[in-house]
Amino acid sequence: MIRLLSENDRVEVLEYLYKDKNFNIFFIGDIENFGMNTDFQRVYGEYSDENILLSVFLRYRENAVYYADKPRFNQEYLNIFERDPFEYLSGKKDLMDLIRPFIKGYNEKHMYFCYCDSFNYKETDVSDVKVLSTKEEASKVFSLLETIKEFEYTKKDREGYVERKAENDKMGVTLFIERDGLVVSSVATTAETTKNAMVVAVATHKDYRNQGFASKLMMKLMDIYFNEKNKDLCLFYDNPDAGKIYHRLGFKTIGEWNMFSKK
């Protein structure tokens, strides 16, 4: 049986998800920050005849995430996919492999999943790294992200991005570096939980690459999370060169992650 979950199910669901806290960071962050049922978020759960939780599916705005602690996919979820459509669906590779035959009209992206709880510190001048705090700064960061083709920010809502970044910092932080009034490099976290956060949108403008900006931002970000917040960090990468940078900083690859994005 699959049903829409409510706040009454919160404790049980979080206990289930925290068994794999890194891979379930999106689930946990969204539930801890926004609850089980809002106008932009819904959580569904699959139960056995003995009322044991077997899998969970979350819809957050245009995004969806699926998780099961064992390789399984109940095709009854397809009815929910139709009723509650999404632009993006992601999850552990072995689970997305089970869903792939039923997903039509989506591109697939394969990524590696990394985790870190300490870093190989190198003395670095981070005095030019800024923490995003205003709508104007958020708009400048969005302008940078629009230039990164694989991020597909040209398809996203600038106004919505600016509002969420400037007014809601409980899901993460955004760091950036400016040159001549333009944001030339940035990094952010999202899905922040009581234990960890996800690193996203590591970006540098093409005219300012190979100057160490991304490494500098990552060092500052890791310092904030490890030394101030006492939380771990997770991230994805699909670029081998980027992977080398993260590994040098102390990240370890712990698995694979796939995302389907609507064509």
Radius of gyration: 19 Å
What would you call the structural class?
Answer: alpha+beta
For the report, how would you describe the main beta sheet? 12 strands, mixed
Q: What number of domains?
A: 2
In the predicted model, the low-confidence regions spanning at least 5 consecutive residues are: none
Q: What coarse outline follows from CA principal-axis ratios?
A: globular
Beta strands, count: 12
CATH architecture of the largest domain: 3-Layer(aba) Sandwich
Question: SSE order in H/E notation?
Answer: EHHEEEHEHEEHHEEEHEHE
Beta-strand level of the residues, as a percent range?
25-35%
**In CATH, what is the class of the largest domain?**
Alpha Beta
User: CATH superfamily membership of the largest domain, which one?
Assistant: Gcn5-related N-acetyltransferase (GNAT)
Could you name the key traits of this structure?
263 residues, twelve-stranded mixed beta sheet, 8 helices, globular
Could you characterize what this model shows?
This protein folds into 2 domains: 2-104; 130-255, Aminopeptidase (3-Layer(aba) Sandwich). The protein has helices at residues 10-17, 25-34, 77-83, 93-99, 135-146, 158-167, 213-229, 240-249; strands at 2-4, 41-47, 53-60, 63-68, 88-92, 106-116, 130-131, 174-179, 182-190, 196-204, 232-237, 252-262. The longest helix is centred in the C-terminal third of the chain and has 17 residues, at 213-229. Helices cover 31% and strands 32% of the residues. It has 263 residues and is α+β, with helices and mostly antiparallel strands. The protein is built from 8 helices and 12 strands. The two termini are 31 Å apart.
